[in-house]
Specification:
Blueprint: E1 17-22, E2 33-34, E3 40-41, H1 45-60, E4 64-67, H2 81-93, E5 99-101, H3 105-110, H4 113-119, E6 131-133, E7 139-143, H5 159-171, H6 199-214, E8 218-223, H7 241-248, E9 254-259, E10 266-269, E11 275-278, E12 291-297, E13 301-308, E14 313-316
Parallel strand pairs: 1-4, 4-5, 7-8, 8-9, 9-11
Antiparallel strand pairs: 1-12, 2-3, 6-7, 10-11, 12-13, 13-14
Helix pairs in contact: 6-7
The chain binds the ligand Nc1ccn([C@@H]2O[C@H](COP(=O)(O)O)[C@@H](O)[C@H]2O)c(=O)n1 and SN-glycerol-3-phosphate.
The site of SN-glycerol-3-phosphate (G3P) has 10 residues, from helix 3.
Length: about 325
């Protein structure tokens, strides 16, 4: 690449920083199984995927690691849940650098928020799991809590549980609220294993994006649940993905949204030029295969180098 003075600008190939990614490890010390739709799941092997990821990250030395949620699986025997989360957090802590965790539905099947969040070192008020951080002044990471309004994770009589159950009853007539039977197209997201971003969190998001705009920061939004129908199955979407997208689209500082939950993965660019990348799950890697990656961050793009089942993706900013 040339420059005005004729010298080659080697700096442009140097990332500003980089971070490791993995999602849906869903570890459990139980035999292999299958998803509801018959996709094989390797509950013990997923720990080996994480261990190989840590080894590779420590060689490559990204600045931090992001775990997109579902650290252990809902089938983990409940008397083992606490120790299993601790064991997995310790595996992540073998990384040379900070680890940022997100919560997912499977985390919440195992432990209530007040137990889970301290273990995952998510410091937030009133047991909420949304937060933001700025690894360098030019970039801001915004982590959304997709189970803010949810029928899982809050106490049974909590206003958020009641609100979520009322919502599900209105939207999904099936007696099994995890069943999308009879729901059409985008309605198929109204399932108990999903959730919504609540009103306070939406306001907080708006304020963070306004602040990022003032500071001239580029924003990467992260959430266990996908936000764009073109990057995900209908059944995996955040209940109010449309409300969240409406806020994101007000701000040109938002460049990329990253997620987990939809195990096959996906990638899209939305109507406002925002990239949406849903990462492939560690849980569904047949023995000896992997799904994790390292993202190099530049001024004009994110570049994901994926291993095995995690597809490499160039996310060049469109706006
Ligand atoms: N198409 C589907 C998908 C799922 N369910 C229900 O959700 C539960 C969890 O699904 P997993 O794929 O994570 O095993 C499952 O046990 C079903 O109750 C469904 O009904 N239809
Ligand atoms: O979180 P799981 O394991 O129930 O899987 C969620 C599905 O992948 C959503 O389609």
């Amino acid at each position: 690449m040339g420059s005005a003075n004729g010298l080659v600008n080697v700096q442009s190939n140097q990332p500003l920083f980089s971070f490791g990614v993995i999602t849906d490890v869903q570890y459990a010390d139980i035999p292999d199984g299958r998803s509801f739709l018959g996709v094989p799941r390797y509950y013990r092997h997923s720990l080996l995927v994480l261990q190989r990821a840590v080894k590779k990250w420590n060689h490559r030395r990204p600045n931090f690691i992001m775990n997109f949620g579902d650290i252990i699986d809902g089938f983990c025997p409940k008397e083992q849940s606490l120790d299993a989360v601790k064991k997995l957090v310790m595996e992540f802590d073998n990384c040379n650098g900070p680890v940022y965790h997100m919560i997912g539905n499977h985390c919440l099947y195992n432990l209530p928020r007040e137990k889970l969040l301290p273990l995952l070192r998510i410091h937030s008020h009133n047991d909420h799991a949304y937060y933001d951080f700025s690894p360098i002044p030019e970039y801001r990471f915004v982590i959304l809590d997709g189970y803010d309004v949810s029928a899982i994770g809050w106490p049974k009589d909590h206003p958020k549980t009641l609100k979520a159950l009322k919502f599900l009853n209105e939207k999904n007539p099936n007696s099994d609220k995890n069943s999308p039977n009879g729901l059409v197209d985008l309605e198929r997201r109204f399932l108990m294993f999903n959730g919504a971003v609540g009103k306070d969190q939406l306001e907080w998001l708006d304020n963070v994006l306004s602040d990022a705009t003032r500071l001239n920061q580029k924003v990467v939004v992260c959430c266990h649940l996908p936000l764009d129908p073109n990057a995900s199955s209908r059944e995996a979407l955040l209940w109010n993905y449309d409300e969240v997208m409406e806020v994101l689209h007000r701000y040109s500082c938002v460049k990329v949204c990253l997620a987990g939950h939809d195990h096959k993965g996906g990638h899209s660019v939305d109507s406002h030029g925002i990239h949406h990348r849903v990462f492939e799950a560690a849980l569904e890697c047949p023995p000896g295969t992997d799904a994790f990656g390292c993202v190099d961050v530049f001024d004009d793009r994110l570049s994901l180098s994926g291993t095995d089942r995690m597809k490499s993706t160039e996310m060049i900013f469109c706006r």
